[in-house]
Each structure stands twice: as structure tokens, then as C-alpha cells.
Design goal:
two-stranded parallel ribbon, 2 strands
Length: about 130
């Protein structure tokens, strides 16, 4: 994860253009597989009669969403950070992502479970996001 875009006061069309402009600057050799969005973006806007996801797709941005809590989403990211085969790396410029990940309290597990080799990925995530 090399960047995040957290601009405010933009229409969805303007936000889509900002996403595409930012991606163009990376000179990617392959198009991103998906942009992960809040499931609420599938709802139709009462003013435009169009969903945010539909607007993004119209700009060629493939969107995926799944209902989940903040903790579940952060845990999925932490699992990706700790993947030994192809770990996700979060750039220090991704302040909002780092803040969200660092705000998730560790899951308490019993000492006996730790002794059997069960562990959480919290420590791996903290090491990976340290400057």
C-alpha cells in the first residue's frame, strides 16, 4: 500500500478523477484489481439517483465491498501484512490506514493457546508499520 486518498468536499466524479490521476503517477504496469469501498456506497444517492459505486465504475474503477466492522477490516489488513509469502507493506505516508490499524486492540488469548503456536498478527503488523 503506497498511498491513500482522503480528500474531502469533492463530488464522486471529482474523487474518481483524483484516484485515476494519483494512479497514473505510479506508472503501474497492471491496473489495480479492485478499490475497496464502504458498502454504503452501493446505496442510491437521493440527489443524483446514482450510487457512488456506479459512478466509480463509470470511470473504470472496479469496486468491491463487503459488510464488516472496522475491526474485521483491520484484521484482514493485518493478516496481509503478516503473510510470509507476499506481505503487504504500508508506506509511512498512509497515515489514516496506520491510525486505523494501530487503534485495534489485540485479541486476548490464553497462555496455553500461545504455547500451542497460536498467535495474533498484531505484533507483526506493528513491526511492519514502524518507521
Amino acid at each position: 500500500m503506497v498511498t491513500e486518498l482522503a480528500q474531502h468536499n469533492l463530488t464522486t466524479d471529482e474523487f474518481a478523477a483524483a484516484i485515476l490521476k494519483k494512479e497514473k503517477g505510479f506508472q503501474l504496469v497492471a491496473k489495480p484489481r479492485a478499490t475497496y469501498v464502504d458498502p454504503a456506497g452501493n446505496s442510491v444517492n437521493s440527489h443524483t439517483s446514482e450510487s457512488e459505486v456506479k459512478v466509480l465504475r463509470r470511470h473504470g474503477i472496479s469496486c468491491r465491498s463487503k459488510s464488516s466492522g472496522v475491526r474485521e477490516g483491520c484484521v484482514l489488513l493485518m493478516d496481509a501484512l503478516a503473510d510470509p509469502k507476499l506481505p503487504l507493506v504500508v508506506a509511512s505516508t498512509c497515515h489514516w490506514t496506520i491510525e486505523a490499524l494501530s487503534s485495534v486492540p489485540p485479541i486476548r488469548i490464553s497462555r496455553s493457546a500461545t504455547m500451542r503456536g497460536v498467535r495474533t498478527n498484531i505484533s507483526s503488523m506493528r513491526c511492519a508499520t514502524s518507521p
